[in-house]
């Protein structure tokens, strides 16, 4: 109530805060905010997405840039997400995102995605239309073992794996 400035937490639709889940668990704070649609946690310290609890199923937009995340275990409890901004973390495995049926916008800039095959998981997010992956090793070569190939075009490869994509790195996906 102090953070939001309102007595009736049902009125809160958006919240921005910084947390350190090494010291404080958020528990199931989403249960107190039934109408929360947007949550901004940029520059927080989150050991795991699980630290957000399981009561954010009504959330539509989630920002967790620069939070030190190394995996996305637990993201499936945010089942209504339409937009997820998780730039500048240490994420390499995208398999957990397949549970997000409503996902339309995903920002993965500056993570540790090294294998083009990780994009197959995003192909299962049937509503995904905007994706940012620049700043990941996968933009330079298809996987860690392969040498940099002059003919390698990550844009064309991503478009093959995610045919419904409209924008890749803020440029129309059709421009390969």
UniProtKB/TrEMBL annotation:
Keywords: Leucine-rich repeat, Repeat
Gene name tied to this protein: Lrrc56
UniProt key word Cell division: no
Protein name: LRC56 protein
Keyword hit for ATP-binding: no
Record-linked Pfam families: LRR_4, LRR_6
Organism in which the protein naturally occurs: Trogon melanurus (Black-tailed trogon)
InterPro entries in the record: Leu-rich_rpt, Leu-rich_rpt_4, LRR_dom_sf, LRRC56
